[in-house]
UniProtKB/TrEMBL annotation:
It holds the Pfam family DUF2520. This is DUF2520 domain-containing protein. Gene3D superfamilies: NAD(P)-binding Rossmann-like Domain, ProC-like, C-terminal domain. InterPro entries: 6-PGluconate_DH-like_C_sf, DUF2520, NAD(P)-bd_dom_sf, OxRdtase/DH_put_Rossmann_dom, TM1727-like_C_sf. SUPFAM superfamilies: 6-phosphogluconate dehydrogenase C-terminal domain-like, NAD(P)-binding Rossmann-fold domains. It comes from the Bacteria. Residues 4-127 form the Putative oxidoreductase/dehydrogenase Rossmann-like domain. Residues 144-268 form the DUF2520 domain.
Length: 294
């Protein structure tokens, strides 16, 4: 599968599941010189993505996509992946020597076992990026890292494919994939929820443009967290301002009761991390935790 230069040979690429992720990975591989020849697409949105992003691809049934390709992207939802793999193997689709790539963060290459036993080459390549379905997804891919998991003998191919797409391969052990994915989902997905909640509360407080107010502060907070970890923390929990935190909880109960539980749990976690880092005095922590237990 490799040329003398150590790069993967030019491959015929098939995309089973031309959704937000599959269509973007298809574009990235095409830009790297591979040829997207086929894709499966059920919904109108998927068919539109194929037409706009993968114009040279024929729309085929999944088994025929695999048959037409050297590298097959299995970019379906996590829960649909096992049945897809088992179905391809059970229907007798010739998978010998074909590179099967899934993009699920929660799974390693083991989930591809039914296809591996009939000769497929399994790779787990997960882009650590959020995909919204907008055009900027393609450009963002070139600046992200991929969680790479594969059999050791296939590691050079897996990492080379990621490099070709302009991204950074980061090796994740097979038994650490779910922990890896939990870390990313907790950071990225919950961040969106927290920011949206903050903006909603600011609107309730009478702020006319919440995003404009939040952007500089949240950008600085994210930068501090990435550079300094917990030592980038600021605010009332770090100061041990139990009265201020109690006031927050009271106002949330009155105006946004659905936000109380998350505020309290995150404040507790913040306090625990600050205590462990030696940043919060024990006596201040005691008063604060007493408020958060009410």
């Amino acid at each position: 599968m490799e040329t003398t230069e150590g790069r993967p040979a030019r491959l015929r690429v098939g995309v089973i599941g031309a959704g937000r992720v599959g269509s973007v990975l298809g574009v990235a591989l095409a830009r790297a010189g591979h040829r997207v020849v086929a894709a499966s697409a059920v919904s109108d949105a998927s068919r539109t993505r194929v037409e706009e992003r993968l114009p040279g691809a024929r729309v085929l049934e999944p088994a025929r996509v695999a048959e037409a390709s050297d590298l097959v992207l299995l970019t379906v939802p996590d829960d649909a992946l096992p049945d897809l793999v088992e179905g391809l193997a059970a229907t007798g689709t010739d998978l010998r020597g074909k590179i099967l790539v899934h993009a699920s963060g929660a799974h390693g290459y083991g989930i591809l076992a039914p296809a591996t036993v009939v000769g497929a080459l399994p790779l787990a390549l997960h882009p650590a990026m959020t995909f919204t379905g907008r055009d900027e997804d393609v450009e963002r891919l070139a600046n992200c890292a991929f969680g790479v998991t594969a059999p050791e003998q296939l590691r050079p191919i897996a990492e080379a494919l990621v490099v070709e797409m302009g991204a950074e391969p980061v090796w994740i052990a097979e038994d650490r994939r779910t922990l890896y994915h939990a870390a990313l989902a907790g950071g990225a997905n919950h961040l969106v929820t927290l920011v949206a909640d903050s903006a909603s509360l600011l609107s309730a407080a009478g702020v006319p443009e919440p995003a404009r107010m939040l952007a500089p502060m949240l950008s600085a907070a994210l930068d501090n967290a990435l550079r300094l970890g917990i030592h980038g923390l600021s605010g009332p929990v770090l100061r041990g301002d139990a009265g201020t935190v109690a006031g927050h909880v009271e106002q949330l109960r009155e105006h946004a009761p659905e936000s109380v539980a998350s505020y309290v749990e995150l404040a507790r976690l913040t306090a625990d991390r600050a205590i462990n880092a030696g940043m919060l005095k024990p006596e201040d922590a005691a008063r604060l935790l007493d408020v958060l237990r009410r």
